[in-house]
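Input for the complex:
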Amino acid sequence: MTDPYSITPEMVLHISKLASLELDETEKSHFAEELNAILGHMKQLKNLDTEHLEATFQTFPAVNVLRKDVPEPSLSTAEVLQNAPEKDGPFFKMPPILESDV
Amino acid sequence: MTLWKQTIAEAHKRLSKREISPVELLHSVQARIKEAEPSVHSYLSVFNEEAEAQAKEAETRLKGGGEVSPLTGIPLAIKDILCIRNQPTTCGSKILESFKPPYDATAITRLRQAGAVFTGKTNMDEFAMGSSTENSAFGPSRNPWDLTRVPGGSSGGSASAVAAGEALGALGTDTGGSIRQPASFCGIVGMKPTYGLVSRFGLVAFASSLDQIGPMCHTVEDCRLVLDAIAGHDAKDSTSATFKLSDLKSYAEAGKADASVKGMVVGIPKEFFGAGLDPEVRKVVMDAAKKMESLGARIEEVAFPSLEYALSAYYLIASGEASSNLARYDGTRYGLRVSGPTTKAMFTATRSRGFGLEVKRRIMLGTYALSSGYYDALYLKAQKTRTLLKNDLDKAFKTCQILLTPTSPTPAFKLGDKTSDPLAMYLSDIYTIPVNLAGIPGLSQPGGFSSENLPIGVQLLAPAFHDYVLLQAGKSLETALNLQKRTPVENLSHGNQPATV
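Predicted:
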């Protein structure tokens, strides 16, 4: 595996696609430089011994929370759709999902 | 008497005696907003008719037509990351510029029940990512003590609003110091409660295992009054703690006039006083320690060796959680939509235009830390490092009831000073970050002033759910310090004009 504490412009491009962000050439090199500076600081973790430690994902004891299966009032369709950029009747309206539909 | 200069407790006293009315109080605050806002820019939206209606409703209650609480008729500002039904909730972002939530956050519901009046929504770094409000898509707020300086962040608008007298108190949110650092910079009191104490329902998520809502006010007592109103179990937040507020209060004597730190052991973690700490800040914290000692507390040096790893762990964890939480902004159900030929193209175009630079940077870092092949080395490593930090704190709290540290390494810095160096900006949260990683409560309160007349905050910490013990210690220190009540730039509309950045 390559060094996780350094990132190439190609990797930046790959990550931007995973995150659905489009970067122009300037942004791409800008982010590579900045992320490398930040990851350079984080490199201190590399030699930190954490082998026998459990991860703390939550500081609060996580328990599954269930409620009684009793119907309660919820938002109306109009309220749910009040912020929709585009809608059609009771639906959110979307562009085609598959490339082949375009 | 200038009504907007009162603390919440003072105003409550006068309101209950009917010496002043909630409408008069609101009008005084609104006039102050008009006067100060062109200089400080604390608000993203100001409520007029709605606030007037709330003040009138409070008046009815005070006349005997309903329940009166210490917050009835009190004008409060709300950080623009908390949902208020049918009011703009932008999170300081272009992507939510037009968003009006169809429901109230639980903290808002509780403030309504208490009879509070909402003055408006305050400015913030976009999605609470930042330490200066300079990442707001709608321009920065300014520090009322010196308009060429930042108010801190991300809850900088809430801090500058309270400091400038544009509200009697405010709600902020704190993921890595976003309540405490701006409170320190603006000379007010800010509290991050224990994770789980205040419901996060209706708080737009940044990093779900770290985010917490809390009060920002002029005094420790005022913070307690706001916390009393917003804390408590909520079935709508599955991380909300199930407890009785009265049980937590029974640990402390916060409400009593003679609340003290006598007999408490106050720990000073020596790693918090290393390189990078401004000597003036160090002196203010050390003076606070002496003050607590003179009140009968025992001061003890404790070790916190993992502090140096906190920033790295925090930025991997918070960015990882953020990249996941912010995936929802895709132009489908709310907020900005930039059209594209396909759904995927629409997502990418919307996010690329809607998010600002810092938000993109953190989404990138978080996505990287969670991506295949890097998860173990980065994200999981950070979560294990978090355990190390938590263990250090647990150990310190075996011998101490309270820890005393600086809130931020320096007083407020100048606008533009750190915008080109993200790492330098991140370092201003170095002393507040471990608190969120461990889930414990933290309080920043004024400790003194720098030679340039800038406020300097000190931070007090307590074990999880000892929030009222923390407030007790804070109140005791506040009374003993008896800081001369200084007002920031009084006549904000003349003379001290903001520099152009």
